[in-house]
Design goal:
Elements (H helix, E strand, L loop, with lengths): L4 H21 L3 H26 L4 H31 L13
Helix pairs in contact: 1-2, 2-3
Length: about 100
């Protein structure tokens, strides 16, 4: 069975939809971070799928590698921020982050 690009695009669209739904409906900062990671992974799947479709070089894989590196750095910084928020407020809910204002 030959897997066409349609399957990759459908998987990417489902992941994008799940990430957007989670981003807009969750209140916990960790759940929002996971939703953002789903959105970025959907873009990575698109890069790899279109690189396979075009077969011109490795540009899609290079973009995917850069995206994964940026995602790792973003996750490390976001988790550090979440830890500091939890230390100050004793919760991780986005609704109560306005108490950090001056």
């Amino acid at each position: 069975m030959n897997i066409t690009i349609d399957y990759f695009l459908i998987l990417s669209a489902v992941m994008l939809g799940a990430g957007m739904y989670g981003f807009f409906t969750r209140r916990n900062t960790l759940a929002i971070l996971i939703s953002i990671e789903l959105i970025l992974n959907a873009a990575d799947i698109n890069f790899a799928a279109f690189n396979r479709l075009c077969q011109t070089g490795i540009e899609g894989y290079v973009f995917t590698l850069f995206s994964i590196a940026i995602s790792a750095a973003e996750t490390a910084i976001a988790i550090a921020v979440m830890i500091n928020i939890y230390r100050m407020l004793k919760n991780n809910y986005v609704d109560e982050l306005d108490t950090l204002k001056w």
